[in-house]
Design a protein that fits this description.
single chain; about 160 residues; mainly alpha; globular
Length: about 160
Amino acid sequence: MDQTNVAQSSAPPQGGPTSPTPSSRSINWGLAGLAVVGCAYVGLVDPNTSSFYPGCPFRAMTGFDCPGCGATRALHSAITGHPLQALDHNAFFVMAAVLGVVGFAVAKVRRRMGKPAIAWRLSVSGAIALGLLTCMFWIIRNMPWEPLSWLGSGASGG
């Protein structure tokens, strides 16, 4: 075996986990474009005054907030530069969005530096912990006592 064959056989495979395939790249760009358009719409059309946005069916049936109640209004507040108001609508959503943006930024910086992307995998125990955290937020945000009532979405109706 000559040196040329050895060098070729040790080359990393194309399209591995560190370099996305062209089709996954276009899907990622498409999803990013949809996210930008959706955020732009939510930033321009205030969910506090527009009747276009659907109400929460859980809140309509029970009168209580679900974990997602207030997320659209929180996104609108964050986009329009009111982070404290966004936290007031849905603190769980705002923290998750911040973590998502930071994770995305770290992945992009690592890729620019030539380092492999971080593989984000949720273990079974991590999924259970996330589910329990979501359920705890769901219960606590519906408590009528101060300061816990601050976690409610602040919606006046359905």
